Amino acid sequence: MFSIEITATCESISQAKQLLTTEIDYLYFGDEKFALRMPNAFSWSEIELLTQLAHQANKKVTVAVNAIMHPDKMKAIPEYLSFLAQIGVDRITVGDTGVIFVINRDQLKLPFIYDASTMVTSARQINFWAGHGAIGAVLAREIPKLELENLSQKLTVFGQIQVYGASVIHQSKRPLLQNYYNFIGSDEAKSKERNLFLSEPKKQETHYSIYEDSHGTHIFANNDLNLMPVLNELAAMQLNHWLLDGIYTSGEAFVEITKLFSQAKIALENQNWDLTQASLLAEKVRELHPKSRGLDTGFYQIDPESIK
Question: Is residue 254 part of a domain?
Answer without folding.
Answer: no
